[in-house]
Amino acid sequence: MNPKLPYILLVGAAVIIFILSCMLLSRGGRSPSCESQPSVVEKTGSMSQSLVFADLTAEEMSQVVRYLQGHLGVPLVDASRAKPSDNCIASVDLQVPAKAEVLRFLDAGGARPPREALAVLYFGNQPEPNITEYVVGPLPTPAYHRDVTVHKYGGKVPYHRRPMLGSEHKQLGVFLETKAFAAAPTFMQEVLEYDRTNVAFQPRVPHGFQSGDRVTWFVLFQNVSGFFVHPVGLEVLVDHSSLDISQWAVSRVFYNGQYYRDMVQLESAYVQGRISVEKVRKAPWDGDFSSMKPRARAAALFPVQFEPQGPRYSVRNNHVLFQGWSFAFGMSVSTGLRLFDIRHKGERVAYEISVQEALSVYGSNCPAGMSTRYMDGSFGLGRYTSPLVRGVDCPYLATYVDTHSLSDSLRPKKRRASLCIFEQNLGSPLRRHYSNLQSLYYGGLVNSALVIRSIATVGNYDYVWDFIFYQNGAIEGKVQVTGYPSSSFLHGDGLRYGNRLWEHTLGTIHTHFVNYKVDLDVGGVKNSLVAHDMAFEMTRAPWSPEQQIERPRLTKKVLDTEDQAAFRLQSKMPRYIYFAANSKNKWGHQRGYRMQITSFAGDHIPEASSMERAISWARYQLAVTRRKEEEPTSTSIYNQNDPWTPTVTFADFINNETITNEDLVAWITAGFLHIPHSEDIPNTVTVGNSVGFLLRPYNYYDLDPSIYSHDGVFFTSKQDFTACEINPLACLPKTASCLPNFPPFTYDGFQNM
Fold first, then answer.
1. Mind telling me which residue stretches traverse the membrane in this protein (predicted)?
2. Do 613 and 557 form a contact (C-beta atoms < 8 A)?
């Protein structure tokens, strides 16, 4: 027997006893689980009042499709495989009822408005191809449809204005591969090492220079992760205006600073050695410098927020309750996140707050880049809402909501966890004061707010859309921009239009403008617009008349007309501008809600531009107009492809009508300039790239309503601030010492692509 064996056994037994003791101790001291967290909420169920604003269900969308297939008397091809010469359903969305009908239902016990859908159809297989919009209802069992196109737009919508379907994009890809690239085989193989898989392309808009054009520049990139910053120097202009795909043709070619008639001429010039070739180093599949794969190993986990006593908000169907707030939410296929019937302490303060448009205007010395003006609502801010990643896109324990949409297909698509709702401790006081004069005390309130968020990925950019509800009655609308910068191939005087981001990559200068619709109803539907500001006045000191004092005084002005309420981007706007009610608070002031804009927008596109009227909402940082059912949005999805004859011109909304004691709408524009720089590699961060607005009560209440919040903290020097009944923070070791119930991580963003 080995003499060391007993000692080895003793040591081993001691180690085992130690481990078991630790396990028992740890189990004995294990904190209890926190109350259960909400899981993904499906928007089905009760017929509460908020459902008047609810998005269409998947079944309702399918019912609309079946109805149209059976009642229009024309063949309808699935949009996912439709040719330009076919008839198809482009999209189906909720038709929001008229405001007057909704208010009769919500406030006066009137009948529930009929539930209806808005269907957009492309009629390519007709003697006069056109776009037609139908209202279909009542849902869930449609029995009628009516053509609303002429009523909405004053006439039929020409077919060339149609947003591009995914099927047309695929058909253009086939054209480029089989016709355009095939015409220059030597150039494509020797210069780009083209193998039919290693090239990605991106179309730029608008399509041409005048109404009726459908001529598109395509920029070629290496087909790698983050391809947007891997241009290869080749751009191809394709004329696809014909409804006969066989008639599509290359109109122009651009390579490394030189223009060519077509791909045949490019091939000839290359074979004859008359081209200055700039070969781009082949990037690995992960994109190398554009890869978003972390360059560091995982370390200590980042902070995680949880609710020790469960969520303090509720989500039922499309209705949210939080502290004194309540609102309904929805997702428009074109404009994205929108809110309705927003109330604080039971009183409606806004009927609608919604995103309208996101615009980018680019500069470059390459043809595609210099002609790009993206109006992302045309592509679909709701259509391209992306599934959210727990713990990054939203807090891990947020409530995640699925949404449905129908576009580019006959079947609705479900986007899991594409909207999130959560309460966020912002880590700072909403208000506080520490008194060390006279009485000694501390009073404060944690700034905890409710956030509803969606993220739209439109091409290279990701827009993080937030609406935030604070305990003092303020609402914030905010967008943060991230994603990849768009780029051009660096050549010639390219540095006049941006910064060099990599060897051949020019990050092109561009603007971001976003537009919101804010239909405030302050103390009722009828409001006036009032401006307060400050001016210095010179006065003699009453107690010393020989001395002069420059004192600020309050200036007041009622803005009576739409022209007075339209503030150009660079104009001076009153610093306090608010919707005033016909009622007063305890102190005799008109109750109001103030609009405060956070924006760094510079110059708008010159008004002399032939396309400026299509984006004329961007002229104004703020414009207030009388609300009209026939002016539901500041733009149209059809403006992108025919900005020279816009379907909706916002500037025409402003016609000097009286806006005193009327139902008013504020149209708010915020923006910033983006000059891509080296820190935009691998892609752009949200920090510093955020704009939006605040809606703040202004004499609306008799005092700050957050004083009634349960989150307040107050104690004096004479109180025992370690006692729970005096200071709830003293109880945190007891009330917050629980383990949150983290659901398993799941992600469905790569399903059904």
1. 7-26
2. no
Say how far residue 93 (Cα) sits from the centre of its chain: 18
Q: With CA atoms as reference, report the closest residue to 418 among 391, 464, 455.
A: 455
The per-residue pLDDT for 450 is 98
d(C-alpha 137, C-alpha 113), whole Å:
11
**Does the structure show a pLDDT above 80 at 751?**
no
Catalytic residue among 55, 93, 376, 466: 376
Cα distances from 645 to residues 243, 251, 372, 614, 638, in angstroms, run 21, 23, 17, 8, 10
Question: Residue 536 — very low, low, confident or very high, per pLDDT cuts 50/70/90?
Answer: very high
**Spatial distance between the Cα atoms of 360 and 513, rounded to a whole number of angstroms:** 6
State the pLDDT at residue 752.
60
533 is catalytic: no
The single-letter code of the amino acid at 563 is: D
Q: Is 462 a catalytic residue?
A: no
Whole-number Å distance between alpha carbons of 657 and 564: 10
| Candidates 374, 461, 463, 638; catalytic one | 461
What is the percent of the chain where pLDDT is above 90?
A: 87
* 188-192, 418-422, 600-604, 657-661: least confidently modelled range: 600-604
By residue count, the chain amounts to 753
Q: Which two tokens stand for residue 346?
A: 């039971």
Q: Quick check: 118 and 94 in contact, CB under 8 A?
A: yes
Identify the pLDDT of residue 728. 87
Q: What pLDDT sits at residue 746?
A: 87
**What is the three-class DSSP state of 549?**
strand
What element of type H or E holds 23?
A: helix 5-28
Full-prediction pTM beyond 0.90? Answer: yes
Q: How far apart (Å, rounded) are the C-alpha atoms in residues 648 and 636?
A: 6
Write the CA distances from 270 to 231, 236, 415, integer angstroms.
19, 16, 47
Cα–Cα distance between 731 and 686 in angstroms, integer? 36
β-partners of residue 136 are: 117, 145
Closest CA to 320 of 294, 344, 304, 356: 344
Question: CA distances (Å), 114 to each of 63, 105, 630, in order?
Answer: 15, 11, 19
| Whether 442 contacts 715, CB under 8 Å | yes
Domains of the chain in start order, with CATH, are 46-157 (3.10.450.40), 166-290 (3.10.450.40), 313-427+448-698 (2.70.98.20)
